[in-house]
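Retry 2 of 3 after timeout on previous attempt. Resubmitting structure tokens to design endpoint.
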């Protein structure tokens, strides 16, 4: 339980530092906590975090050194050649799995720090959101997805700048670490649509209708796609099936999206990437709803752009004047603390 109390204290500290706008303190604190999180992910308990033992076995027994690497190398734990190549390069210098995880963690947080600098108006609060919602699942468990998502988030910058080639290049680089990043490619053209508040509401209603009534018609189509991408375990395993529209995360994301949408006039002028982030989060939420019958598929695809909660949730501070700002800090801290407790307890307490 100590880690939960430490997280609550960090939320309080982040609120105080953000309110009093000491930029040097904020920057130093942000980098210090990122360093701590990086080291913690590298020096993880090998028995505690899911998928860790699979990565260790692959690294020890399947991954060749760089001199012996070729594109025909096969690894049972995953298929992405970019991650195999990265692992091969690391193995050429050391066979120590702690250093292996540490290097991957460093690379992930290098890109995450860039993401925060570009997209989060209040980085310490954004880091609270990231720790509570994503850190355990990505940096301690799904490390390929964690690295790939940290990279692919930068594509939003190139959407904003209307630089298609760089946008596609970022996605392709991310996809060599996790193939699911290719699902982001159509977003560049979707973002060109003039999406307003009513469109967001209609998209959500249509998504709920599809999830409620058209899932049987989607099943074969989605299964075919999963087979083609070598991700059949996402849609056809005992862990693949979700709880459908009973998933509370659907309503959590939908509520955040609607709040972010309907308070556009108070947020957009202060947040340069508002339109791109709003549309990306809509893209994420539609995947979460439509694919709700498939827990792994909906979770893995929706979480890519759901990461922009690091920008969305702190931006709600813009809705309050100075006298009511502490209410916003309190609500954000309570929200992220509850999510952190649920994530931490579901992964840790169940494995003790």
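Retry 2 succeeded. Sequence:
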């Amino acid at each position: 339980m100590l880690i939960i109390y430490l997280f609550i204290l960090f939320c309080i500290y982040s609120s105080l530092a953000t309110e009093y706008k000491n930029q040097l303190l904020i920057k130093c604190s942000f980098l210090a906590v990122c360093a701590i999180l990086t080291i913690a992910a590298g020096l993880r308990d090998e028995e505690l975090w899911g998928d860790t033992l699979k990565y260790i076995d692959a690294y020890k027994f399947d991954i060749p050194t760089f001199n012996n690497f070729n594109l025909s190398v096969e690894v049972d734990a995953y298929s992405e050649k970019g991650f195999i190549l990265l692992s091969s390069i690391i193995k050429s210098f050391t066979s120590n799995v702690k250093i292996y995880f540490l290097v991957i963690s460093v690379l992930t947080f290098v890109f995450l720090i860039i993401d925060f600098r570009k997209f989060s108006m209040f980085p310490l609060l954004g880091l609270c959101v990231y720790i509570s919602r994503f850190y355990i699942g990505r940096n301690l468990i799904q490390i390929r997805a964690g690295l790939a998502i940290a990279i692919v988030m930068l594509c939003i910058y190139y959407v904003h700048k209307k630089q298609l080639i760089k946008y596609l290049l970022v996605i392709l680089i991310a996809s060599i670490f996790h193939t699911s990043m290719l699902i982001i490619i159509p977003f560049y053209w979707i973002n060109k649509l003039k999406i307003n508040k009513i469109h967001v509401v209609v998209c959500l209603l249509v998504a709920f209708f599809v999830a409620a009534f058209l899932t049987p018609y989607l099943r074969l189509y989605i299964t075919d796609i999963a087979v083609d991408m070598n991700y059949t375990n996402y849609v056809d395993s005992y862990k693949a099936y979700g709880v459908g529209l009973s998933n509370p995360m659907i309503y959590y994301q939908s509520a955040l999206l609607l709040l972010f949408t309907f308070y556009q006039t108070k947020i957009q002028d202060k947040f340069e990437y508002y339109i791109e982030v709003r549309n990306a989060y809509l893209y994420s939420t539609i995947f979460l709803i439509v694919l709700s019958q498939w827990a792994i598929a909906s979770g893995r695809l929706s979480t890519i752009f759901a990461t922009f909660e690091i920008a969305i949730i702190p931006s709600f501070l813009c809705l309050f004047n100075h006298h009511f700002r502490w209410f916003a800090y309190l609500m954000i801290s309570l929200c992220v603390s509850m999510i952190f407790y649920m994530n931490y307890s579901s992964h840790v307490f169940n494995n003790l």
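Attempt log closed. DSSP finds 18 helices and no strands in the chain.
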